[in-house]
Amino acid sequence: MVAPAVSRRQALRASVAHRGLYGGLGGPSRPHSDGTSCGGTERGSVTLLVVFFTLIALALASLLVDVGGALNARERAADIAEQAARAGANDIDVAALRDGEVAIDTASACSRALGLVADYSARSGFNASANCPPPSPQQITVTVSVTTRPVIAAALGSFTVHATATAEPVCGITRGGQC
Fold this sequence. Notes:
Elements: H1 8-19, H2 45-89, H3 94-98, H4 109-124, E1 127-131, E2 140-148, E3 159-167
Antiparallel strand pairs: 1-2, 2-3
Helix pairs in contact: 2-4
């Protein structure tokens, strides 16, 4: 048997039908004579992946920004607590100092520490509050709470971080803290 001769035009039509109407890759496809399509079934899948990964990237970026804000608030609370404790420890009892003993003025040390926290809160815009239990003559402890709101995940509400610092009065560094 001899195969029938195929004209160049028939071969070109078969090639176009096999690859699709406009080259096959991503363009509209032309159905075969049996009703099946050649190509075109993957259309839009790249767009779906790009949208999905963009949403994931934005969620991770918002998490990064809000976690960074929380860490910043915790560092601020620790810094404010340390500064307030130092301010309270610097309030020295003058009568005890004249007797040769370094002691904190327990009557006014907490008010000085709490005043420093209130001043910082007013100037910085951070919502900071402090707690100062009555100090001993040898040390003062200050607990500071800083409330902050997430920037991007604001629907989650605000959160508060706490830090505690303790300070003691020291007369000098050359004599080991003794006057």
